[in-house]
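F.,

This is the one I mentioned.
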């Protein structure tokens, strides 16, 4: 059970990292978001789309395209039996200006549920954990990819060269991420240019993308204004869960009851098989049987049966016990001397 729990925990952790997404990118930052030192630089926002905290340490951020990475894996795996994370680490050591390994030890690398973290593409990775060794070039297509610790592609984006200064290239909404969580490849239809001139196009590094209306709530309001279907659905889920629990408990009860009854039947059958039969019992002599019967008779009839009637002696001759005079010493008589 412990082994199963560990495997499930590791799997859940890996699945959580696959829910990380590149959410918003700004290439030419002249007057927008600044780092902790007050410097302006291109930035990349990563969003945790899961409902659990995910650690992004030891993950890889790179500007190498997927084809280059896959071909590198293919060639190197034929030469050695190294795993992909080892190959990515080696690639990061050789080409540290294009691939960044997020270091361990920084508490801010643990991204909270439905939250964001921002990396500055300023080419100054010595300034801290969230500074990348490469820069993004304005007027050119910028490819950015995020890889898991085991070398699997998590997400990728191609920022178009036409992106204006102080504009960001962002996903249309966080709902689009939830609908396409299983998609790892770049889909241009899920992205838009944000100029920050309106709430719908707000530039929001390290914050939620602006959404004037919650689409899910608005959909419920339009299709179920009275809330009847929502109530029926909620109650149906609850009672269905209770019914399933009842059925499971019944099945488990019958299973264990039948199992216990089977064990009892086996014990009884074994006892019957081991019981000696009348034919196998030793036969005694007639004298021995008669002696046993007599001993039992004398044991149960050891005393005479009393009548329970009291009798009284009415004769005049009383014993010492019934006459006080007989209890006294008689006075001696004096004899005359002749």
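My design for it:
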């Amino acid at each position: 059970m412990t082994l199963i729990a560990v495997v499930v925990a590791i799997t859940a952790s890996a699945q959580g990292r696959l829910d990380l997404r590149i959410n918003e990118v700004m290439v030419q930052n002249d007057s927008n978001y600044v780092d902790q030192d007050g410097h302006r630089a291109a930035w990349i926002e990563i969003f945790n789309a899961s409902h659990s905290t995910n650690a992004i340490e030891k993950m890889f951020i790179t500007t190498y395209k997927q084809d280059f990475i896959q071909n590198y894996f293919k060639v190197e795996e034929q030469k050695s039996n190294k795993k992909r994370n080892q190959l990515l680490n080696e690639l990061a050591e050789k080409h540290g200006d294009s691939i960044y390994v997020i270091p361990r030890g920084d508490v801010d690398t643990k991204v909270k549920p439905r939250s964001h973290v921002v990396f500055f593409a300023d080419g100054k990775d010595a300034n801290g954990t969230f500074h990348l060794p490469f820069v993004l070039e304005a007027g050119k297509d910028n490819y950015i990819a995020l890889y898991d610790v085991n070398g699997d592609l998590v997400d990728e984006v191609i920022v178009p060269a036409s992106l204006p200064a102080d504009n960001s290239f962002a996903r249309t909404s966080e709902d689009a991420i939830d609908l396409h969580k299983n998609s790892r490849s770049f889909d241009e239809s899920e992205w838009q240019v944000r100029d920050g001139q309106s709430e719908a196009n707000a530039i929001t590094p390290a914050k939620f993308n602006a959404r004037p209306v919650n689409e899910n709530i608005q959909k419920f309001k339009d299709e179920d204004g009275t809330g009847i279907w929502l109530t029926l659905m909620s109650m149906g889920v609850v009672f269905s869960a209770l019914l399933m629990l009842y059925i499971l408990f019944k099945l488990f009860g019958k299973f264990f009851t039948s199992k216990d009854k089977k064990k009892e039947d086996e014990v009884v059958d074994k006892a019957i098989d081991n019981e000696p039969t009348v034919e196998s019992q030793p036969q005694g002599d007639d004298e021995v049987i008669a002696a046993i019967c007599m001993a039992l008779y004398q044991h149960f009839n050891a005393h005479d049966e009393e009548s329970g009637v009291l009798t009284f002696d009415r004769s005049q001759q009383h014993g010492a016990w019934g006459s006080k005079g007989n209890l006294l010493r008689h006075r001696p008589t004096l004899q005359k001397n002749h």
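The chain has two domains: 12-212, 213-271.

Talk soon.
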